[in-house]
Specification:
This protein is mainly beta. The protein is built from four helices and 19 strands. The chain has a six-stranded antiparallel sheet, with no helix packed on it. A six-stranded antiparallel sheet has the order 2-3-4-15-14-16, with helices on one face. Strands 8-7-11-9-10 form a five-stranded antiparallel sheet.
Length: 363
């Protein structure tokens, strides 16, 4: 970990149980290879299933239109509204104001927007960068790593750890998945491949067969488990139905949501959340932040259900990709915050040993 003041200087210059420790370390070397062409269930997707085929035309007269059309809930407008900084004493200019991160076609709102939040009343170094994502135009997908989470039931050929080449043209971003298996044993399944069984107390990011996402405690979601195409579990939800986990206030120094190797809980952290409609997705990456601080930042942005993803310097990342040139793999064009560690050609040519999420433009 770099010194706390140095991290703050870098920022300014560029604009689970107690035993759970998410370890940092260098990315393992791996020979470059052409990415395989993969299909479900190796890749989990939040895209809605394809529509049923249209019936052939008939010479019979068309039936009369229904008496009244049923309104379809398109969900909230995107981007979401700007919001007041939760802590005026430590707020910086731009906190709570959404700015474009990934553009759509001319005349359309951005696909991704970002803002920052300083959630602590006294710690000026603590902040979170929050990305809001419109799942109606952007598909969230999920892949297992070649090594994590460790599993004795899923063979290597079912976990290639690389984004299919067919998706490179629409790739927008990649961000980290959850904890290593040894740091809590949180459950994970993609299709019929169960890497680790679910745990009742775990916060669960569930991919539903109808194309929606849900983030709730497993005991709440489990009755509908047969409708899930995939899930990834994390430590207990930071926020559930708008309520911050009470442990965060009762024990501010808890290590239940991970810590550094030296036991520090004010570290880099990440989280995934949904708004009340379930139709706006949020990713948060916090620097020098506690679990309580990350929860406060995500809630301020509009998330009502929040799962903490991975923590610590080496494994938390949000990478933006430039459009790929013909015949070439896409490359990282930008990182969400300064000094994000990432492998060259990782995720698109070089397999990842850790599970990860990625975003592609819907067509």
């Amino acid at each position: 970990m770099i010194p706390r003041r140095a991290a703050l200087a870098a920022l300014l210059s560029l604009t689970l149980s107690p035993s759970i420790l998410a370890c940092s370390g260098a990315e393992p070397a791996s020979a470059l290879a052409a990415p395989p062409q993969l299909a479900a269930p190796l890749v989990a997707s939040a895209a809605a299933p394809p529509s049923a085929p249209t019936a052939p035309a008939s010479s019979a007269p068309a039936p009369p239109p229904p008496a009244a059309a049923v309104a379809v809930d398109a969900g909230p407008a995107f981007p979401p509204p700007s919001f007041a900084a939760p802590e005026a004493k430590t707020a910086k200019d731009g906190d709570g104001v959404w700015t474009p991160l990934v553009a759509d076609a001319a005349g359309k709102p951005p696909l991704l927007v970002r803002t920052t939040v300083h959630p602590d009343a006294s710690d000026h170094a603590m902040y979170a960068a929050i990305v809001a994502i419109d799942p109606r135009r952007v598909d969230l997908r999920f892949l297992a790593g070649t090594a994590e989470p460790k599993s004795t039931s899923v063979p290597a050929e079912r976990r290639p750890g690389v984004i299919p080449a067919a998706e490179h043209a629409d790739l927008l971003a990649v961000f980290n998945g959850g904890f290593m298996a040894k740091h809590g044993g949180w459950g994970m399944r993609i299709g019929a491949d169960t890497f680790l069984p679910p745990k009742d107390e775990a916060c669960t990011v569930a991919f539903v067969n109808d194309g929606s996402l849900r983030i709730r405690t497993w005991t709440t979601l489990s009755p509908a488990a047969a409708t899930f195409s995939a899930y990834r579990q994390t430590p207990p939800c930071l926020i559930e139905q708008g309520v911050v986990n009470p442990v965060l206030d009762a024990d501010p120094k808890t290590r239940r949501w991970g810590s550094s190797e030296t036991g520090d809980t004010t570290i880099r952290r990440s989280a995934l959340g949904l708004d009340a409609s379930g139709k706006i997705l949020f990713y948060g990456l916090g620097e020098w932040i506690t679990p309580r601080g990350l929860a406060a930042a995500m809630r301020a942005a509009g998330a009502v259900d929040v799962a903490e993803l991975d923590v610590n310097w080496s494994y938390t990342r949000f990478l933006l990709y430039a459009p790929a040139k013909p015949g070439e793999a896409p490359e990282v064009s930008e990182t969400l915050v300064p000094k994000i560690k990432h492998p060259t050609k990782g995720y698109v040519m070089k397999p990842s040993d850790r599970d990860f999420f990625y975003l592609v433009r819907r067509r």
